[in-house]
Structure formats: C-alpha cells, structure tokens
Design brief:
Length: about 270
C-alpha cells in the first residue's frame, strides 16, 4: 500500500476518533448571548466535526478502492467549498465594527448602526430581541459585574465586555452619576441619546431595552465569530492538506486497478 494511502487511512481514522467527542458534546450556546448569538461557534464546530467522512476515505485508501475514494474526494471537496463559503460570509458580516473609544474609560462603547445589516436584522428584530432580552434579564452577568469593583476608577479603567458595556450601565454621553456599575444617579440634564431615558436601576431592567445593549450583544457576537473564524481557517487548511493526500491515494488506486486489469488480460 502506497504511503499516501496509509496516511489517508490513518488520518481518517484519527478524524473519526476526534469527531466523536465533538459531535457528542457539541458547542453549548452562551446563556448571555442567546442561541442566536452563539450560532457562529456552533457552525464552526459542526462543520469541523462533519469533516471526518471517515468510512469511505479509510476503507478506500486501505483497500485501494477507486469508488470509495472518489466518493470521499467528492464529499471532501463539497465540505471545503462549504467551509470556504462560511468563512467568507463570517468575515463579511463581522467586518463592520460598531465600537468607539470613550475618553477616560478603559472599555469601549458600541453603536448599533455601526454593525452589518445582516447582524442588525438577525438580532434586532422584535421577536428575536424579545427572547434575547428575557434571557439577559434572567442572567447574572451584570450582578457579578457590580461585585467586582470597589471604586469608580477601578470600574472606569477596566476593559469590560461589549455586552456589559452596552447593557449593564447607561451610555457615558448621558452623564449619569456613578454609584456602582449597575446603579447610577439620574442627571439633571440627560443627554439627547434615546438610551438616556431608557436606563433603569432595576436589576431586571437596566439598559436591556437600549440600542446600546443590542450593540453590545453584536460586539460580543462579533468577537465570538472572529474566534470561530480562526478555527474555520485551521480546519480548512487541514482539510485541503488531507484532500491533496487523498488525491494521491486515488491516483495510486487507479494505477493498481489498471495493473490488475492488465494481469487478468494476460493470465
């Protein structure tokens, strides 16, 4: 058996073993970002785990069977195209960044209009946001934030997450007075930003109805997808490498098949 056939068979067996825990365990969605917000990571792990297609690849490579190898190569090519399309889509929809720096703050704040139209439509639709807002109000990510800081400077200089920046406090432009990260004093002349009138010190309300909260969620989602893109790139490179080796195994199978036919013709 040729070296390329051996490598293809071994790689597919390893892919099968690695894919089992991925398929069983999956990628659990983050409670604070909702199922819709974690879909990027789930797509990447689903696509990576489906890359095994191990049975035809291992069997075809081990037994030098053209039909099985051809089926395997077709499935691999389709998967590579799928991953490449998903990667391009993820880069396009996450390219716009709605973040902006705030003077005297270690964290950034976020504008909803600064993100891609696809993300804004997907997350910002009334039915989707109603579910996400309920999930956010039932979570404790803002409550935990309130217990992490003893002084205003500690809070203002920290790099909190986009979701915390958008949902757990009012926008800086509103001029609210700091008491703790989730309790703020209403200013006499609040800013013109519509979110300024939506802030509420009630832990179940906070800024969950604000555009800044939607923007913070998109900021978190963008970061998650950017991390998932790294996984997709690695998976794509590995798949292309395995595909090229499998092509060599397929050529070996063709050569051996021609040799068998030649021997049968002269026996």
């Amino acid at each position: 058996m040729a070296v390329s056939n051996t490598i293809t068979a071994v790689l597919n067996f390893v892919a099968l073993m690695c894919s089992i825990p991925i398929i069983v365990c999956g990628s659990p969605p983050s409670k604070t970002t909702s199922a819709s917000a974690s879909s990027g990571g789930q797509w990447s792990s689903s696509a990576s785990s489906s890359s095994s297609s191990p049975s035809p690849g291992s069997s075809g490579a081990f037994w030098n069977r053209q039909g099985l190898l051809a089926l395997y190569l077709f499935a691999m090519a389709a998967l590579i195209v799928l991953l490449l399309s998903l990667l391009i889509f993820a880069f396009v929809v996450t390219r716009p960044d709605g973040s902006y720096p705030v003077y005297g703050r270690g964290y950034k704040e976020y504008r909803f209009d600064g993100f891609s139209n696809w993300l804004k439509t997907y997350v910002g639709s009334p039915e989707n946001w109603a579910k996400i807002r309920t999930c956010l109000s039932e979570s404790d990510f803002c409550t935990k934030l309130a217990s992490n800081y003893l002084t205003p400077d500690q809070f203002f200089q920290d790099d909190i997450s986009p979701l915390q920046s958008g949902c757990c406090k009012p926008p800086t432009v509103c001029g609210y007075g700091y008491v703790n990260p989730t309790v703020w004093v209403n200013p006499s002349n609040p800013g013109a930003d519509p979110d300024c009138s939506l802030w509420n010190n009630d832990p179940s309300q906070l800024c969950y109805g604000c555009a800044s909260c939607k923007a913070g969620l998109l900021g978190n989602l963008r970061k998650e997808w950017r991390k998932a893109n790294v996984v997709l790139i690695i998976a794509l490179v590995v798949l292309i490498w395995v595909y090229l080796i499998a092509c060599s195994a397929f050529k070996n199978a063709q050569t051996e098949d021609l040799f068998r036919r030649y021997k049968r013709g002269y026996v």
